[in-house]
């Protein structure tokens, strides 16, 4: 048995279909139907697969048994996509499937694949250790967004800067990149696909949320508040007008769905992690963040590409550097993580993340176990070169880090527009100073 899960549009189905090429495969995609009708549709699909389209089954176990025992020249793959729709309507299917698997199906020459896009449901109700299917799956895969370096391979005709512009809005969801046409600039593509009222991404964020939430207005208020920069729980409560006594529940649901991430400063102790009021929230999906930042309060009737581009230049572009800064930090973190796992950093980094305390922030901090060696980084996505002032500011902030008194610091500065001559010259003479421009982020 295999369980594959991840957000809608993230590429789960395409991944499974690729795996199934050349193999005897039964593929069924569940819908938001009541259980009797779902079973009828599933039975029809099983009957067709088994050569008898008129066949119907009164029980899920009977249909699955017939499917598994149907003769096949090679190992058969049975895929049930969007499995959460079946399980939510018929919770007993988990226990029924567990008994059937233990007593019969596990001995058949099949691979049963359960796939779902309800991340929290699959994680808790299917994979949870107190649930019937716990321990049955030999393969468990959570499909995550693609990193910047991989996304760049999809659009080789664009510059690194243009690819990043796309990544800051679309993130690593392959489906979102299908609308990027190389004959248009990246900005034209983004404007046309998102800002036009008939653009294929114009309403995608709300479409996903409508399927998941009944209290949509409250979740919208919370997400929009975070998108505009409120990151602490108190700030979110104040600006979203959601009662602090219930906000934690909503935030927990958004975390479970991987729509929101709660971050703690690197070096945070157990006391910090256990304190619900500490930690900062950010929207994990760049597209969702973009939608709530620029579209939630500005529904448009834009129909043409030119109108969309004009709207982008007027409303998005003036704020884009600020909006994209968080994604740039994530891309820089991906870069350092690649160096970390390839052994190319000057010491063994055991922890890497943001750090903040009492109004002082450092974009990325990494350290060894004893905190005797420390990597500190500033990530500057702005329309000017970085100079020595940024380095001096970073060095000053390092004095507040909770590291060994004799810690050795390695300074990394990432810059969209490069560096001035003074800083470049300094880097040639200082082995502890590393400057990384936009073009190097794919290395």
Counted beta strands? 12
Q: Summarize the biggest pleated sheet.
A: 5 strands, parallel
Structural class: alpha/beta
CATH-level-4 superfamily name of the largest domain:
Winged helix-like DNA-binding domain superfamily/Winged helix DNA-binding domain
Q: Indicate the low-confidence ranges by residue numbers.
A: none
Quaternary structure = single chain
Number of domains: 3
CATH topology of the largest domain: Arc Repressor Mutant, subunit A
Beta-strand residue fraction:
15-25%
List the helices and strands and how they pair.
Elements: E1 2-5, H1 12-20, E2 25-29, H2 35-49, H3 60-69, E3 76-81, H4 83-89, H5 93-103, E4 110-116, H6 119-126, E5 139-142, H7 148-154, H8 160-170, H9 174-177, H10 186-195, H11 204-212, H12 216-227, H13 233-240, H14 244-256, E6 260-263, H15 270-274, E7 280-283, H16 286-295, H17 305-341, E8 351-357, E9 360-367, E10 373-380, H18 388-397, E11 408-415, H19 421-429, E12 433-437
Helix pairs in contact: 2-3, 8-16, 8-17, 10-17, 12-13, 12-16
């Amino acid at each position: 048995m295999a369980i594959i899960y991840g957000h809608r549009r993230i590429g789960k189905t395409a991944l499974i279909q690729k795996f199934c090429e050349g193999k005897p495969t039964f593929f069924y995609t569940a819908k938001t139907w009541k259980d009797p009708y779902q079973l009828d549709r599933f039975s029809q699909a099983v009957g067709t697969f088994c050569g008898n389209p008129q066949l119907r089954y009164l029980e899920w176990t009977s249909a699955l048994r017939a499917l598994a025992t149907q003769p096949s020249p090679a190992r058969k793959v049975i895929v049930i996509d969007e499995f959460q729709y079946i399980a939510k309507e018929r919770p007993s299917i988990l226990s029924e499937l567990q008994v059937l698997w233990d007593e019969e199906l596990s001995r058949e020459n099949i691979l049963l694949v359960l796939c779902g896009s309800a991340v929290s449901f699959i994680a808790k109700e299917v994979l949870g250790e107190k649930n019937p299917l716990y321990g049955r799956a030999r393969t468990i895969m959570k499909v995550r967004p693609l990193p910047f370096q991989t996304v760049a391979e999809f659009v080789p005709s664009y510059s690194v800067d243009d690819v990043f512009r796309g990544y800051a809005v679309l993130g690593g969801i392959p489906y979102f990149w299908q609308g990027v046409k190389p004959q248009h600039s990246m900005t034209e593509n983004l404007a046309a696909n998102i800002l036009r009222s008939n653009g294929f991404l114009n309403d995608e964020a709300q479409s996903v949320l409508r399927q998941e939430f009944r209290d949509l207005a409250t979740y919208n208020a919370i997400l929009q508040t975070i998108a505009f920069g409120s990151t602490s729980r108190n700030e979110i409560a104040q600006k979203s007008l959601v009662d602090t006594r219930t906000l934690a529940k909503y935030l927990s649901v958004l975390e479970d769905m991987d729509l929101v991430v709660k971050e703690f400063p690197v070096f945070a102790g157990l006391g910090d992690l256990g304190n619900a009021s500490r930690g900062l929230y950010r929207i994990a999906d760049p597209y969702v963040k973009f939608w709530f930042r620029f579209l939630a309060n500005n529904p448009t009737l834009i129909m043409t590409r030119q109108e969309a581009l004009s709207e982008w230049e007027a409303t998005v572009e003036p704020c884009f550097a600020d909006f994209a800064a968080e994604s740039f930090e994530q891309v820089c973190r991906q870069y350092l993580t690649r160096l970390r796992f390839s052994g190319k950093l000057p010491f063994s980094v055991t922890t890497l993340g943001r750090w903040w305390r009492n109004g002082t922030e450092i974009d990325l901090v990494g350290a060894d176990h004893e905190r005797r060696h420390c990597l500190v980084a500033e990530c500057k996505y702005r329309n000017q070169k970085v100079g020595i002032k940024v380095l001096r500011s970073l060095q000053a902030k390092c004095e507040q880090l909770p590291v060994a008194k004799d810690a050795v610091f390695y300074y990394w500065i990432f810059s969209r527009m490069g560096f001035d001559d003074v800083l470049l010259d300094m880097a040639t003479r200082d082995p502890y100073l590393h400057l990384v421009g936009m073009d190097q982020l794919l290395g």
